[in-house]
Amino acid sequence: MGGPFPRRLPPAYRAAARRALRVTIAAGTGFYVLLYGFDLAVGATYALFGAIAMAGLSHLPGSGRQRAMLLVGAVPVCWVLITLGTYLSVRTWSAVLGMLVVGFALAFMAVGGPRFAGAATGLQLMYILPSFPPYDPGSLGERLAGATFGLALLIIAETTLLPEPSALPYRDRAALAADGAARCADQLRTAPYTLPEATLRTARALSTGLRSSRVPEAERPAGAGVRQRALAHTGLATRTLLGRLTVLPPPPQGAVPPADAAGAGAVRATRGPDPLRAVTEVARETAARLRGRVPDGRAHSALQQARQALAATEDGSPAALRRNAALLEVADAALTMSTAADIAVRGRAADVPAPGRFWYARQRAPRLWWRRLSGHAGGRSVFFQNAVRISLALAAARLIAGIDTLPHGFWVLLATLTLTRTTVRETRTTERKALTGTLVGALVAATLLAIVGTDIEVYAVALPPLMLVTFTLGPVKGVGWAQALFTVVVALVFAQLAPATWQLAEFRLLDVLTGSAIGAVFGLLAWPRGAHDELRRSVAVLLRIAAEIVVATTAQIAAGGRRVPVVTAPGHRSLQHALVMAESAYAQYQSEPRGLGPPPVGRDWQAALIAGHHTLWGADRLLVPAEPVVTPPLGREASESVIRTGDRIAAGMLLTSARMDPTGDTAEIPAPLHALTASATMAADPPGAARVYYTTMSWLASLATDLERLTAETAADATILD
User: What is the pTM of this model?
Assistant: First the structure.
């Protein structure tokens, strides 16, 4: 690692030191230029705290260039927030109401993904800063100019000072995974028709690399727009394709796949085009498209023809029909991957067959954002819970600061914002450390102010190195160190703005104590267990809806009837919404320390989400055709087998749901599920069963595997493919 930091410095300190250097230079330059160069105390304050708010107290993900682009877009938002805060702060009631509304809106913007969530704290501070004395709307111009100057310096610093290399983009990760899928499909075309261990390990690694937890925050496709949704869809489809290829059954004994059919007398396992060759070409085409090239799309058309030929195959031995069902799943995953990648690259200009699972492809950004926001506008969303918690806490802090006219009331809201956590246990631990650190910092600041007095030159010289140490050690050492050092920093800042005594440190301690107390109260009253209970509840709801979908799907498959392409099959939208709620709760749960009442040992939450996705995708594949079709009913034995197996899977989902639901009283001891493996499911095939029977049973067997993993005493390995 180059630069002025030694190689032996731990990576966490190196990263924090780089950020601290950028913050210190941007904030310090803006502060000193405006204060001592132009005698603009208000502008200097906004330049300093603007840079600190958006870089020192916020977590903007990505490389320096990515953060700079985010800051460029945030500048107009900061203007609006400073203007609102300036005019609403004149009266306490309007300031409190504004704090409630603006605080909720800025916290709720986390639904837009890590970039929005990372900027939320800084934007909150940009609104909080003008909400306190002096109540002087006449100084709005100086406030805006100072904040703009500080943010401009920060943007320059982000792009020029010790820039980090950008992480591998998600499109490139998906392209690598598509290349891996192409290699797997190509190897499966020839004997021994199985993948060697080295290839399996590579496939698992490529699939794991697409999981959001393994992708840097700035590169996660978490936005609500068409391209972001399609890119996330591409990753999910690619992982599914890799998973299906690794468990593809070999051709029946005596049958030769098209790639190995040497003569006219060979018995072929499939008729028509070679589906695995078509999958190989589609995967390569997808990888090329994701890398910016413009393929002609012939591979996609060829795979569609191969899939149609497979779907038309109704005769053959049970082993041949089982392989055909598995090949259909592989082909569907590859076609989904190809279409989603095309949308991710071309947006709404992409060629999309029917809405179906690509319902978002023709919708404009405002409609998609409204769908995202309205989907989380309820008490079951952790984003909504966090926004309510922080907005109520900030409004209460502003009310108390306004009524009691606390000196430097800004610090009250700053403490409330930065110390409030999503669980009571975490808030209590954080505030204990923060108050200890603030007390130590206040003692140091009081001593320094008492000794130095009004010698401003000493404060001016000491501030930059202290800021550098503060923003280097604070993020690594924790909240106690951060509060101690930041207390001294603000003392040095305010001592340069106006004559200060040792009582300034006393006010800082009092304000932090008040703010932390407010945060603790609202952390206790508003969803005090954070995402723990919400995760269990949302997963329970997810499994209950999935069980209903399984029963309804198997019943429709057994009965046959007319199938038509629809945007969303009945009941499937509820499952989609349940998946969104469960995934958002799981994302927050991963970011929280284990608080009150840890979940049962061995609980694999990821398996529950995978089961939900498999339920949705499998039911859509079985019930939503590309064009209208009439399917005959299954025979009596096949119908009984499908319905019986579906009922067993649904019963397992319901039992697991009851054990997870925090509002229920079902015993936590796992009950035997007798989950079916694929081989056990296909052991006794009814004579003359249609191809759809094998496709349905293959889907149910995958759900049984998910449930078995979910209820196992030991959590599955993190590299399990979905």
Answer: 0.82
